Amino acid sequence: MSRTVYVNGEFVAEENAKISVFDRGFLFADSVYEVSSVLDGQLIDNEGHLKRLHRSLTELGMRAPASDADIVSAQVELLKRNNLQEGAIYLQATRGTAERDFAIPKDSTPGLVMFTQEKNLRNPPQVKNGISVVSVPDIRWKRRDIKTTGLLAQSMAKQSAADAGADDAWMVEEGYVTEGSSNNAFIVDASGKIITRHLGNEILPGITRSAVLALVKSDNIALEERPFTVAEAKVAQEAFITSATTFVWPVTSIDGTSIGDGKPGPIATRLREVYLQTALGRSA
Ligand code: PMP
Asked: Which fold has domain 125-283?
């Protein structure tokens, strides 16, 4: 059975979901996106994702394709039509169609596309086994804080990881880890302090990162927001990643070196559990 997809106000079968070849999202990656996870049929941290959507739109001078209330009701309807209990909802806002020209059109009508994906979020094998990462150079542009669909560098990073037999890539710039190919990166040092890169133009301000850091602070776990090196990560007690569709996944090896005892660490494991409890509470 085919999925129902949302395209500019209409719910259509996925084979009929089409946009113009002149859409600037297609021609210039002139579009932004958000992914919210779904557990028990409920959107997780969706408010934060919509807030970041507006930030991305503002940074690019793009009008919102619909009001938040209309976006949320379309999301809820899409979940219902696809009977999605566990997985993700992808949302993309594009500048819309215009004659191909580098200059940004002032009068284009923004577009909105959404679709669902079923995923095993609660108990994927990565939670029990941890993931392996390899370091790769960060070859992205300088506004990584904007969540655009210009994702080729991240795709290439992820493919390099797969080619090396690893699960994911951590991108490195000037000797410091920026973030994972589609997630934020954390280490726990020998003293038990959590270290993750500070926000700035160099990384995406992860919604899950922010929720997890709020838990870290309320738990009085020591935290330092600063860049760290791959060498520091290799001698860390623990390492982990956060993102909407992984929540918290332990990282158990970096460039072939085991982290700690090579097993998922207690801090990452606990943060995952507490994040899930709190996020489900928020969505109810
Ligand atoms: N960094 C990058 C580069 C990402 O692509 C993502 C996920 N899209 C994240 C971090 C995590 O963000 P979030 O927690 O909002 O999913």
From this structure: D-amino Acid Aminotransferase; Chain A, domain 2 (3.20.10)
| CA 56 – ligand 1 centroid, Å | 13
Cα 192 to middle of ligand 1, angstroms: 24
Per-residue confidence in pLDDT tens, the chain, 284 aa? 799 999 999 999 999 999 999 999 999 999 999 999 999 999 999 999 999 999 999 999 999 999 999 999 999 999 999 999 999 999 999 999 999 999 999 999 999 999 999 999 999 999 999 999 999 999 999 999 999 999 999 999 999 999 999 999 999 999 999 999 999 999 999 999 999 999 999 999 999 999 999 999 999 999 999 999 999 999 999 999 999 999 999 999 999 999 999 999 999 999 999 999 999 988 76
Ligand 1 centroid from CA 183, angstroms: 4
Please, where are the H alpha helices in the chain? 24-28, 46-59, 68-81, 125-129, 152-163, 207-218, 230-234, 266-283
**Which of 223, 120, 230, 118 has its CA nearest to residue 180?**
230
User: Which residues, listed in sequence order, are joined to residue 10 by a DSSP beta bridge?
Assistant: 7
Please indicate whether residue 193 is annotated as part of the active site.
no
- Residue boundaries of the structural domains of the chain: 4-118, 125-283
The residues lining ligand 1, judged by C-beta closer than 6 Å to any ligand atom, are: 35, 154, 179, 182-184, 204, 206-209, 242-244
The active-site residue out of 80, 147, 158, 193 is 147
Compute how many other C-beta atoms are within 10 angstroms of the C-beta atom of residue 57. 19
CATH number of 4-118: 3.30.470.10
Instruction: Please give the number of the atom of ligand 1 that sits closest to the Cα of 179.
Output: 1
